[in-house]
Amino acid sequence: MTPLAETKESPRRRLPPWFKVPMPGGKNYIDVQNLLQQSELHTVCEEAHCPNIGECWENRSATFMVLGDICTRACRYCAVKTGRPLIVDMDEPQRLAHTVERLGLRYCIITSVDRDDLPDGGAFIFAHCIKQVRQRLPECRVEVLIPDFQGSRPALDTVMRAAPDVLNHNIETVERVFHSVRPRGDYRQSLELLAAAREISPRAVTKSGMMVGLGEEWDEIVQTMKDLRSVDCDLLTIGQYLRPSSKHVPLEKFYTPQEFEELRKEGERLGFRHVASGPLVRSSYHAEEQFVTARRS
């Protein structure tokens, strides 16, 4: 076991003992790493410095990140590169679907960088990825973790018409903190997107996620849960913010496993079908289990 490493730019801060994770590098991990390199695909596991990469890749699972690895936004909590993106790779959906087939996935998660340079924000590529995966593996469930598309209803329509099994869009943090860490996003717009997804596809499973440790208060977290339930969001993930570098927004607090458990119980009291809450929880962590639970409830 090894404690999670901070990047070389980040200030040294001792991590609590519950942040110890297995050292990545098993046989399956190496196989997945090589396959992704051969397929020229990006993953949020790598780009966002996900602490669960060792566990997930060893289980032959990864969260694919389409539309390149350069984001048009510069959210103050995120490790993904920002700048001017490259042109859209129209062959990416086919390569992704082929890789999903080679991995034999039963559950596939697809996300992307923000592409505010594109008229539809990249919605067409999301839809194409869903269709390509379904053609190769009809039994594979597909979850998409989408950006806000700058509030574009036609872009959301494009994704929802492809019928993802789960439509995920992260609220990320509480309303008071939101603008300071996501200056080009909008808290209410994110809620409206989730509400619109439900309107377009009433039977769709919707999901959102948030980080804690950015200076929010407990009652603000609960209010964010209530806001998500007000748009009939089904699934919720809550995890600890970890500062990628000294250039990013400071970490204000480490929440204890007991506090995460209280947040889980509160979410369930509010009516979420499933709440995954813990220090290492991220949007795609054990996502298939969440989906199965939602379908059973």
List descriptors.
alpha/beta; two-stranded antiparallel sheet; TIM Barrel; 297 residues; globular; eight-stranded mixed sheet; 12 strands; single chain
How does this structure look, described?
The protein has 11 helices and 12 strands. The chain has one domain (21-296): Aldolase class I (TIM Barrel), CATH 3.20.20.70. Helix 4 (92-103) runs parallel beside helix 5 (123-136) and helix 9 (218-230) runs parallel beside helix 10 (257-270). Strand 10 (205-212), helix 9 (218-230) and strand 11 form a beta-alpha-beta unit. The protein has helices at residues 27-39, 44-47, 53-58, 92-103, 123-136, 153-161, 175-181, 187-200, 218-230, 257-270, 287-296, and strands spanning 2-3, 20-21, 42-43, 63-66, 70-71, 81-82, 107-112, 141-145, 166-168, 205-212, 235-240, 274-277. It has 297 residues and is an alpha/beta fold. It is globular and about 45 Å long. The strands form 3 sheets. Strands 3-4-7-8-9-10-11-12 form an 8-stranded mixed β-sheet, sandwiched between helices. It has a two-stranded antiparallel sheet with strand order 1-2. Strands 5-6 form a two-stranded parallel sheet.
